[in-house]
Design goal:
The structure is a homotrimer.
Chain A lengths: L10 H20 E3 L8 H25 L7 H26 L5 E3 L1 H21 L5 H25 L8 H18 L16 H23 L6 H28 L7 H6 L3 H5 L10 H29 L8 H21 L7 H27 L23 H7 L14
Parallel strand pairs in A: 1-2
Chain lengths: ~425, ~425, ~425
């Protein structure tokens, strides 16, 4: 199949280098340091820089390691996560700037937080197609999704003036449905009956828990980073902390309830315990009360776990949506729940605003995601980007040099491991 | 043995859900946002939020991964750590509030730090019974231990007005002896000669080092978080940093001294290097001098390592105290050392206070721990909580779906791993 | 070979304990708490403490886990990293103080950041000799290198008054060439054809990525920590963030370009993606423009990857420099690039200063590194420090108790693993 050649030798490096050179040229023309605004004064700097570092950890460690649960796909999960986020934050800085005002784009720590945010959408979508795409396809996804995100974010925040402090709608629901639309376009009938590498081993599940726990811990910073300083920001921290705590209890409980002999399932624990952070996002800075935040989290943990158990198999079997990480359960449904909770909260006066505009924001986010994802999926489907054949899915060794340990265990049990072995060398 | 049924299918989920619903109802009645006090003003918020995030990392990554050293108990260590901490922080917020004043409880970031602190006692005790208890038993432990902790903490801080900035007495010694009392009540003669799963493999020891290093790094934040802002807080940071550094040298040295051919033992490195953080706790904010802090740390590293090597086997063999993680060596003895150092330091005028009250605080902490732990252990011993039988101790697969890698290595070396294998499926 | 006895039983513990006691005595005479200066006022404290915690994570998690890529050397990598950093920060506090002024040394959080910095030089050099030295040799390296570092740093900062905010010259180039000089002195002809343990396995590469990602994320804090507060500090954060992002793209691209079938090589991804942080160091706080920072990072990623692929084998084969971690490629060449960029930037007026003095600073750093490293290497070569024989290189089991998993897989496939197995027990 020459059209499906997965040899990246020239395509990937040349594309990546040209993309970076273009980006640097755009920065030379359009970007300069910020001299005032959000970042003037040492105290504000300290404030934003700490939030920035927390968000940065969520993007690079949190998302990166959360996806390392697959037994043979850890290099790609954490490595490509780093590549996409590194490119995405540059592109996000440019895209935000183009939409948020004329003249030069001024890089401040506040803008860096927003740039990191824009990469989160891509990393969510990455989860839906994990193991089934080439690095080149993923760079294209990054380019197109962040561009679409910036348009939608501009509409939601500047035109509709809707509230979405923790970005349940603009990041989580958007990223999930964008990714699901791409996954639908890239549907692989050959994976209908599963794939031997589409599963975890003991230590890959442990690596994934590093991602889970860092996401869980720093989510209060994520949801409060762009809230108004003062009471709204404090409220966002408290609401997120409590929502996640309640969500953890319900996720554990429901996982045990639906599994064989009441056992806990690592997939649920790795993911559904985080749904409370997603779902409380839109309301994070609203005076919904500590128990209100806990109720949202409690509900999100239940919905998310049930989604993994019952809905994901249906989406794969009936709708042709093969969602590797189950982003629909962690980001999709809890993101919509967050959007709906925001509509209700604004309606009940928990924050100034219009319930109608909140609903329009949710609709806009879903619409841009589905249309943008479908078009992006069609482009990614072109047989020139080195997409892996079915039998090489979920396997690092197609795009990475991989040490040869497993073969050796099988073939040569009596001698030690050789230095510098490479798979398929 | 029907009384020892470990099927969690209904017991655990129903108990967890009811517990969470009761908690949410209590929050609805008693808890509201803080509007002033410790958290007003953006700068104070930044200050406390950063300390909070550091403490949060210690609780969820530090304690969670420190306990992953067992070869087959990583899911439980990091997963149940998350469950207990998530429930514990909610319960801790309620318990603190009930004792610290009438009227509503106001959640601020400062209170969130204290809530995280209260969970630390449970996670220390968890270490003593690691591998030998069901998730349900551990939820009961959390409920009872945090309640007891709140009473003792109220007595020490508000009635005795004793100093314990880094909580050597109220968290470390309390948590350790509470856990040891529980472990004594749950004594298992069947484990007298060890258990094949009560040991590490190479990579499980590596995961545990993630926990060790994060605890080590953020301990200055832990010990300074509730100290008086200004000089006392700076002092707590400096003292803790130096105590841990000196402790690391003595722990490495003594580990080498007592082992075969001078080799280092990972158990000592993972644990005894942290004893300096525990032992300097009570004195952390006192003007004991940089070299004073280093002396405390140096001594703690020696005592802790010797405890692992010589005392733990004696406790298990002669007193029936099977302390899986050796919390007596990391939290127990160094906690008492910290309490004693505090008495001496106050006596010598390093901080205003009464040496007698310091001694009373140490006695109160130990007394509440031993009595509370004994009663809690008796309740946990009731044969209705799904406690694992001896042969299933230290093994995730009794409460978790576990991928089947090891069986496969043995049985089917020539084919690849199957997707979605589950242990005992 | 009695001269090469690797039994550490008395040598190592006695040396470590005496070293620590001497250090405590020196602290008792020369060190006291800081009462003003950099650390007065709670807001400045918060500011520096957060930077300190970020730098601390880089030193202990970043460097520690980056070196865990070797299949059998993880305990030593993260464990000895902790030992050397813990001693190094104490020694660094003393050495800085001796050079930076008369009278007592005042420990502030600012000084703690600098103490952590001084340990970074040792950890870089450690990378060059990883797997080939005893713990005792490494303590001697720490003692001598930090002493040399403090002299050079005093000359560069106080006498030449050169700019080096992110320490491309004084930490990275210095640490790399010091380590390479030591490695040259400790040249082992027996390792000319490689060593079976000098390679990674799948999960050891995953652990190493934890180190990579934490270094990558917190590098903006490292490069801005000692910059002037206000605009220069903001500039350092922005420049480092963008340099690393651009560097990641070029490192991935070149890795794919030079490897078989365009595959990515984990060694490049783990290391070369960080070269942008090193290379932008000297210019970090200068107004080189966002695109200027990106250009430096882009170039650093290319040079570093090419160095791993083509230069390291030449250094090993022709110059007798066996550089285990390739520190020449991550810290050496990018450090020089950073120094050169600093000369150019000062020449073009991006910051007040003298290009000549910048050049002198680079020369001084390289000179002290090469001379200091050569002398240190000669001392480390003395046959009394328990250096490992060639066949035991890159293997924890010579200095650590190691669980026996691998032997078991081979010999006794049918029974489970035994508890408390020890290698060579």
């Amino acid at each position: 199949m020459p059209a499906y050649s997965t040899n990246m030798r020239f395509k990937f490096p040349i594309f990546a280098i040209i993309l970076e050179i273009i980006t640097i040229v755009l920065f030379a023309f359009f970007v300069e340091y910020d001299k005032g605004g959000h970042s003037h004064g040492i105290h504000t700097h300290t404030h934003f820089q700490n939030l920035f570092q927390d968000v940065h950890v969520m993007i690079f460690i949190g998302f990166g390691f959360l996806m390392t649960f697959l037994k043979k796909y850890g290099f790609s999960s954490v490595g490509l996560n780093m590549l996409l986020a590194a490119f995405g934050l540059q592109w996000g800085l440019l895209m935000q700037g183009f939409w948020h005002g004329g003249g030069k784009i001024h890089v401040s720590v506040y803008r860096m937080i927003n740039a990191d945010f824009s990469t989160a959408t891509v990393l969510i979508s990455f989860g839906a197609v994990l193991g089934k795409t080439s690095p080149l396809q993923l760079l294209i996804l990054t380019l197109l999704e962040i561009t679409t995100f910036a348009v939608n974010e501009h509409i939601v925040a500047d035109l509709l003036k809707a509230s979405d402090a923790g970005a349940s709608m603009t990041i989580h629901a958007f990223g999930a449905y964008f990714g699901l639309a791409v996954a639908r376009m890239l549907y692989r009938p050959g994976l209908k009956n599963g794939h031997e590498n589409d599963g975890s081993v003991y230590h890959s599940d442990m690596f994934a828990m590093i991602g889970t726990v860092f996401l869980w811990m720093f989510w209060p910073s994520f949801n409060s980073a762009i809230a108004e300083p003062g009471v709204p920001q404090l409220t966002a921290v408290v609401n997120t902390y409590l929502s996640l705590a309640a969500c953890t209890l319900s996720a554990f409980a429901v996982s045990s309830l639906v599994e064989h002999r009441g056992k806990l399932d690592m997939v649920h624990i790795q993911n559904a315990t985080l749904a409370g952070g997603v779902a409380v996002g839109t309301c994070a800075d609203m005076a919904i009360g500590p128990f209100g935040a806990m109720l949202i989290g409690f509900l999100a943990g239940i919905i998310s776990t049930l989604g993994f158990k019952f809905l994901s198999p249906i989406l794969a079997a009936n709708l042709g949506i093969q969602d590797t990480c189950g982003v629909h359960n962690l980001h999709g449904m809890p993101g919509i729940l967050g959007g709906l909770a925001g509509i209700v909260a604004v309606q009940f006066g928990k924050k100034d605003g219009s319930a109608g505009m909140q609903a329009a924001a949710l609709g806009s986010s879903l619409g841009f995601a589905l249309v943008g994802g479908t078009i992006t999926g069609l482009i990614m489907k072109l047989p020139i980007w080195g997409q892996p054949p079915d039998q090489n899915c979920f396997d690092d060794s197609i795009y990475w040099e991989v040490p040869e340990e497993e073969e050796e265990n099988n073939e040569s049990l009596t001698h030690g491991e050789h230095s510098k072995n490479k798979a398929e060398a």
